[in-house]
């Protein structure tokens, strides 16, 4: 039977897949502050911000299985005000997370009939960040165009025990079958990255540093007219599914019913016509020193799972890259990670941002920025066309870096705002 597309792609890196499935299962199916149906509806709201029908459909199915009210699927006007009030931080985290403030947190937590508890809000924030970032992976790997979605018109339960990645747990036969199939699959042919190796070697003698704001401004200049270079998903026509007797989800309503202010989108953090925007300094608030302990205290154990996932993607090794003489995969990975955080205004004082321009050629930067900031504008051709010298598993690796770097960026801003509220 057809293996679910997200896990099929992640299966190129089985250790990461194991960590991802554990986190996904804990977020959606284990004890936690939020009711199960609300968790899946929050996931629907998050995925809709990027018009990700693939994730919306999966979570609609799970929402109904969890006993959710089918009326809620008619749109935000049909859900409780408490859930609807989450829309503002959903919108901000999805597109411009640097705008979130302690006032947004205070508004949700203030004493009222529809107030959130701190624990509930942390659970919701992790869900939102998780699904926003996962939407980037879905579009980046072409899962949105997966043939199993039958032209995006319907979603049928999966054949392996009717499991989707929302339900799969680590260590079961699902992951083992995935590993077996991926081991048998022949990977794409790969050209040696001589030019990359040469650029990486030049870094070691690079003496001229560049400010990260200049990097962002250059990226903005390169990205103007980007719409002509990258494929743009057409329209916002989506699905507002209903379940039939076979468990199939069908329907044809606009995904906009799950959104407010649909025109709100990513905007470059560094604007040429403005003074330097206040950057987020990791030295002042980091995941390791601040975010981890806060999230773990308010939503037990999730911090450990997230931390494992961040460390897992950082530890992934590309055998092809590692064997190339003179290449340090860790330098390449850090360049991608810091470039993504740079787009969200997050700065590492100990990093020379000249490395980004040396390591990442223009078209790769366009790809990373599109998948990170405008995932709905990607299409399957982008995945196949860009950086053809990479193996398929290496492309998936880059998309995993995008997923985790974006998720951590959203969490840093949200958790910092919660910390400021608590002080």
UniProtKB/TrEMBL annotation:
Protein name: SESN3 protein
Keyword NADP part of the UniProt annotation: no
Species the sequence originates in: Vidua chalybeata
The family this protein is said to belong to: Belongs to the sestrin family.
Catalysed reactions listed for this entry: a hydroperoxide + L-cysteinyl-[protein] = S-hydroxy-L-cysteinyl-[protein] + an alcohol
One Gene Ontology MF term: oxidoreductase activity, acting on peroxide as acceptor
Keyword Thylakoid among record annotations: no
Domain of life: Eukaryota
Record-linked InterPro entries: AhpD-like, Sestrin
Localization annotation: Cytoplasm
